[in-house]
């Protein structure tokens, strides 16, 4: 436990030093705010872009608050996911390549607490960023669009956070397996996109897949009823995260350095 | 144009501009303090200033050489 806290403090310090604690939450907050603002001013934006023939009018039905929140989650699922993966991809592989982990493991320290500290710091960064961004999106939607149903928004947000945790865990697993940063990012983003697309194509086979979590949370916001399979997907997602963690801890143990 | 200006709630748009400024300033500060970057520094200044959100993100992810 003492080792874990030590490693955890080191991870947090490193994330502060590389400005991750600043720019990741900031970008997530801006992503969250932009969607309601753009939706609110869509008529004016179309008007001033000026490509419309004279006399043509477009009537856009103003979307509901929950609808805009669902669109915000869609934003997070493309841009947000990419930023999350890019910001944490070298968390494990970077130290292996620079030789830092070799120095750390010259002493008898626990591999599990080393990996657990990586996980804990990643989860806290993801959670803080997403909660900040989601709260910003919520506030702006309430101000500019309309009411958001509280219960559905909270549940959808929690489920979506779980999906971000899953993607983060997947990235850390890849970071423990692969060396090139581009490869880690490519495999993690690709796998996350494939998983979430597969749940759209084959809903029957992927009923409890973690990839269905973003869809479930969007549906929860739009229809505000509990979609089937939410609980199962959440449980399976947590189990996958524990599984990824165990593989990564083992990888840290057997591959201390790059040679 | 006038009608558009009056309908914009600046008190809600302002935070977005301020956040963007903070992001750019932090990026530039980190660039100033960095001993070495991937690629020339003046290029990163242009990218951060003109690239809005993606520009700063690209700098933080690819431009920084972590102390090693």
UniProtKB/TrEMBL annotation, chain A:
<keyword id="KW-1133">Transmembrane helix</keyword>
<feature type="transmembrane region" description="Helical">
    <location>
        <begin position="228"/>
        <end position="250"/>
    </location>
</feature>
<protein>
    <submittedName>
        <fullName>ABC-2 type transport system permease protein</fullName>
    </submittedName>
</protein>
<feature type="transmembrane region" description="Helical">
    <location>
        <begin position="181"/>
        <end position="202"/>
    </location>
</feature>
<feature type="transmembrane region" description="Helical">
    <location>
        <begin position="115"/>
        <end position="140"/>
    </location>
</feature>
<keyword id="KW-0812">Transmembrane</keyword>
<feature type="transmembrane region" description="Helical">
    <location>
        <begin position="152"/>
        <end position="174"/>
    </location>
</feature>
<feature type="transmembrane region" description="Helical">
    <location>
        <begin position="21"/>
        <end position="38"/>
    </location>
</feature>
<feature type="transmembrane region" description="Helical">
    <location>
        <begin position="76"/>
        <end position="94"/>
    </location>
</feature>
<keyword id="KW-0472">Membrane</keyword>
TrEMBL record, chain B:
<keyword id="KW-1133">Transmembrane helix</keyword>
<keyword id="KW-1003">Cell membrane</keyword>
<feature type="transmembrane region" description="Helical">
    <location>
        <begin position="43"/>
        <end position="62"/>
    </location>
</feature>
<dbReference type="InterPro" id="IPR027379">
    <property type="entry name" value="CLS_N"/>
</dbReference>
<feature type="transmembrane region" description="Helical">
    <location>
        <begin position="12"/>
        <end position="31"/>
    </location>
</feature>
<keyword id="KW-0472">Membrane</keyword>
<dbReference type="GO" id="GO:0005886">
    <property type="term" value="C:plasma membrane"/>
</dbReference>
<dbReference type="Pfam" id="PF13396">
    <property type="entry name" value="PLDc_N"/>
</dbReference>
<protein>
    <recommendedName>
        <fullName>Cardiolipin synthase N-terminal domain-containing protein</fullName>
    </recommendedName>
</protein>
<feature type="domain" description="Cardiolipin synthase N-terminal">
    <location>
        <begin position="22"/>
        <end position="64"/>
    </location>
</feature>
<keyword id="KW-0812">Transmembrane</keyword>
């Amino acid at each position: 436990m003492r080792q874990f806290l030590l490693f955890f403090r080191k991870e947090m310090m490193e994330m502060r030093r590389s400005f991750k604690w600043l720019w990741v939450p900031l970008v997530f907050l801006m992503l969250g705010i932009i969607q309601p603002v753009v939706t609110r001013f869509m008529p004016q934006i179309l008007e001033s872009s000026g490509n419309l023939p004279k006399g043509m009018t477009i009537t856009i039905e103003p979307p509901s608050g929950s609808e805009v929140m669902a669109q915000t989650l869609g934003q997070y699922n493309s841009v947000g996911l990419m930023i999350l993966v890019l910001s944490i991809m070298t968390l494990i592989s970077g130290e292996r390549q620079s030789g830092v982990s070799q120095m750390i493991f010259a002493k008898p320290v626990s591999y599990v607490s080393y990996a657990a500290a990586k996980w804990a710091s990643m989860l806290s960064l993801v959670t803080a960023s997403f909660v900040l961004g989601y709260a910003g999106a919520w506030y702006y939607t309430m101000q500019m669009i309309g009411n958001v149903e509280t219960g559905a928004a909270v549940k959808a947000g929690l489920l979506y956070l779980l999906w971000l945790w899953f993607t983060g865990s997947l990235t850390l697993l890849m970071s423990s397996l692969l060396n090139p940063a581009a490869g880690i990012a490519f495999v993690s983003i690709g796998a996350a996109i494939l998983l979430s697309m597969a749940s759209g194509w084959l809903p029957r086979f992927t009923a409890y897949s973690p990839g269905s979590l973003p869809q479930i949370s969007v549906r929860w916001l739009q229809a505000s009823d509990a979609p089937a399979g939410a609980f199962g997907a959440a449980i399976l997602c947590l189990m996958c995260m524990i599984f990824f963690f165990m593989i990564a801890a083992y990888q840290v143990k057997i591959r201390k350095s790059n040679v | 144009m006038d009608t558009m200006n009056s309908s914009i709630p600046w008190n809600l748009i302002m935070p977005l501009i301020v956040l963007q400024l903070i992001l750019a300033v932090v990026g530039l500060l980190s660039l100033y303090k960095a001993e070495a970057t991937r690629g020339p520094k003046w290029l990163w200044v242009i990218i951060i200033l003109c690239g809005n959100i993606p520009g700063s993100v690209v700098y933080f992810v690819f431009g920084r050489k972590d102390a090693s």
